[in-house]
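Before going further, learn to read the protein records used in this course. The integers have meaning only within a learned vocabulary of local backbone shapes. To see the layout at work, look at the sequence and tokens printed below.
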Amino acid sequence: VKGTVNDLVKLVDEAMITGITNADRIGVENVCLFVDGELQAYILYQTTNDRRYIIFSHARVNYDLPYTCDYMVYAFSKWFADQGVLYVNLNSDLGKPMLRLLPIDIGSVNYFRKYIIEPVS
């Protein structure tokens, strides 16, 4: 079925594949959640130079196991905090209103301001 949601999922999947394929060149790192030796969730992210901030770009969760997403959020948050990370930029909306729901859902404390820069005519 062709539509906005399906197009968006395809776009996100393509961006995720690019992030994984070019991870070394663009500085993408990952953290994974394994249950009984099987991958259940992961996050792709980038860090700033001082490593106190991360830019979260993509995530995948296996929803077949109950509460995997809830546990992923807890475990990854704790892991990042243990690494000295203070703030996370959820770089996941791609300008799409549906993807803006995650930061709103988790109660973000602030938002990076977005600007459009255009050349002077």
Remarks:
- The chain has a mean pLDDT of 77.
- The chain is about 35% helix and 25% strand.
- Residues 14 and 120 are 33 Å apart (CA to CA).
